[in-house]
Design goal:
This protein is of the alpha/beta class and about 400 residues long. Helices cover about 50% and strands about 15% of the residues. Bound molecules: adenosine-5'-diphosphate and magnesium ion.
C-alpha cells in the first residue's frame, strides 16, 4: 500500500509539535491544580478553625458536666486550727478534724468562719462569706435608722421613758448593777396608727451605738410560713452575736395575738412563732446587752403572756397628739418647707383636733404639692386650708371603710 499523501497543514511533525502542546496542557493543569490546592488549603484552615472551636465547646460542656456531677458541699464552721488542719463543726453539730485546700487565704481560715466542705473528705474547699441565713439577713435592717429624736414632734414624755429604758442601761450598766435594779428587757410601744411608734423605736436605736435589727410582725407571719419560729430564733442569735443590739418587732400583734381556739394551720403557725418569741425573751439575762422593742396599734389583742415581768414589762403609751403636740409636729415637718407669712401653724394645730402625726404630715405634703403645681415658691395659707379640707374628707371616708384604710 502506498503511504498516504503528506498533508502540509494537518500532518505536523510530532517530534516538534507535541512537547509544546503538552507543556501548554501541563501548564493549564498546573494552574488548575494550584488553584485547587489553594482552595483546599483554605478549606483546611477553615476546618482547623472549626475543629478548634468544637474542641473548646467540648471542653466547656465537659466542665459543665463535671460541675453538675460534683456532689454538694457540706456547710460547716471552723472551730479551731490545728497546724495545717482545721477543726470544723458541720450543721448537724458533729465535729471533725479536716484538711484545708492550700489555695485558700490563711487569714480567712479563722475560728467562726463559715466554710464549704467536700462531702467525702470534709476537707475545706472554700471559705464562704459570713452572711447569715438568707431568711434573717433578708429581713434584718442592720443599718442604723436615720430618724432622730428631733424629727419627732411632741412625745417628750415618751422620749424620756424610752431613753431611760433602753439608752441608760446600755450606757451605764454598772449603775443598774450597783442599785440592784434590773433594766427592762422589753419595751412595748402602744398607740393609734400614725402616732410615731415606729419613729420612736428608730430614734432610740439611732441614738445608741447598738446594732438595730428590725422586723415587721405582719411580714413575718405572711412571708415565712412555717419558718416564723426559726426566724425569731435566728434573729435573737444574731442579736446576741452583734450585741449591744436592739431588736425591733413592729406590728407585733400579727405574731403575738391571743391564743384563741386555733382554727387554721396559719393560726397554729403564728402560735409557734409566739412561743419561740416567749422562749427567747425568757432565755436571756436582762444585762445581756440585747433589748427588745415592740410596737402595736392593738395592745388589746396581745397575749397576756407577752406582758409578764421579764418580757415586755415596760409599756410606753402614745396617744393622739394634743394641740401643742400637733403644733410641734407641724413645726417639725414644716422645717424645710418655705411658707407664706400668713400661714399660721398655731391655728392649724387647733383645727386638727383628733389628727395623728401621719395625717398632719399628709396635710403638709398636700399643701406643698399644690404650691409646686402652681409654680409658686411658697406654701400659702390657702394651700393649707384646701389640704385640710381634702384630709378631712379622707378621714370621713375612712370612717366608713374602717380606720386602717388610711394607712394601708
Ligand atoms: N410625733 C410625730 N412627730 C413627727 N412626725 C410624726 C409623728 N407621728 C407620726 N409622724 C409622721 O407619720 C409617719 C408615720 O409614723 P409612724 O412612726 O410610722 O407611726 P406608727 O408606727 O405609730 O403607726 C412618720 O413617718 C412621720 O412622718
Ligand atoms: Mg408603725
Amino acid at each position: 500500500m502506498d503511504a498516504p499523501p503528506l498533508d502540509k497543514e494537518n500532518t505536523k511533525i510530532p517530534s516538534y509539535q507535541s512537547p509544546k502542546r503538552s507543556i501548554d496542557k501541563l501548564q493549564v493543569e498546573m494552574k488548575e491544580l494550584s488553584e485547587k490546592a489553594q482552595q483546599l488549603l483554605t478549606e483546611k484552615l477553615f476546618l482547623e478553625n472549626e475543629c478548634a472551636q468544637l474542641k473548646k465547646r467540648a471542653n466547656r460542656l465537659d466542665e459543665e458536666l463535671r460541675n453538675l456531677r460534683t456532689p454538694p458541699y457540706v456547710i460547716g464552721f471552723i472551730q479551731d486550727r490545728v497546724g495545717d488542719n482545721a477543726v470544723v463543726r458541720n450543721s448537724n453539730g458533729t465535729v471533725f478534724l479536716v484538711s484545708v485546700n492550700r489555695r485558700l487565704d490563711e487569714s480567712l481560715l479563722i475560728p467562726g468562719a463559715r466554710v464549704a466542705l467536700n462531702q467525702d473528705s470534709l476537707s475545706i474547699i472554700e471559705v464562704l462569706d459570713n452572711s447569715w441565713d438568707p431568711l434573717v439577713s433578708g429581713t434584718e435592717i442592720i443599718e442604723k435608722p436615720l430618724t432622730t429624736f428631733s424629727d419627732i414632734g411632741g412625745l417628750d414624755e415618751q422620749i424620756k421613758q424610752i431613753r431611760q429604758a433602753i439608752e441608760l442601761p446600755f450606757e451605764r450598766p454598772e449603775a443598774f448593777r450597783e442599785f440592784g435594779i434590773e433594766p427592762p428587757k422589753g419595751v412595748l410601744i402602744t398607740g393609734p396608727p400614725g402616732t410615731g411608734k415606729t419613729m420612736l423605736a428608730k430614734a432610740v436605736a439611732n441614738s445608741t451605738e447598738a446594732t438595730f435589727l428590725g422586723l415587721v410582725g405582719s411580714e413575718l407571719a405572711q412571708k415565712y410560713i412555717g419558718e416564723g419560729g426559726r426566724m425569731v430564733r435566728e434573729l435573737f442569735d444574731l442579736a446576741r452575736k452583734r450585741a449591744p443590739a436592739i431588736i425591733f418587732i413592729d406590728e407585733i400583734d400579727a405574731i403575738g395575738s391571743k391564743r384563741l381556739d386555733m382554727a387554721t394551720s396559719g393560726d397554729r403557725e403564728v402560735q409557734r412563732t409566739l412561743m419561740q418569741l416567749l422562749a427567747e425573751l425568757d432565755g436571756f439575762e436582762t444585762l445581756d446587752d440585747v433589748k427588745v422593742i415592740a410596737a402595736t396599734n392593738r395592745p388589746e389583742l396581745l397575749d397576756v403572756a407577752l406582758l409578764r415581768p421579764g418580757r415586755f414589762d415596760r409599756i410606753i403609751d402614745i396617744e393622739l397628739p394634743n394641740s401643742e403636740g400637733r403644733q410641734h409636729i407641724f413645726e417639725v415637718h414644716c422645717n424645710n418647707v418655705p411658707l407664706d407669712k400668713q400661714v399660721n401653724i398655731r391655728k392649724m394645730a387647733i383645727a386638727t383636733e383628733g389628727y395623728s402625726g401621719a395625717e398632719i404630715k399628709s396635710i403638709i405634703i398636700e399643701a406643698g404639692m399644690s404650691a409646686i403645681a402652681d409654680y409658686r415658691n411658697r406654701c400659702s395659707a390657702k394651700d393649707f386650708s384646701s389640704a385640710l379640707t381634702i384630709m378631712d374628707r379622707k378621714r370621713k371616708d375612712s370612717l366608713h371603710n374602717g380606720p386602717d384604710s388610711l394607712y394601708s
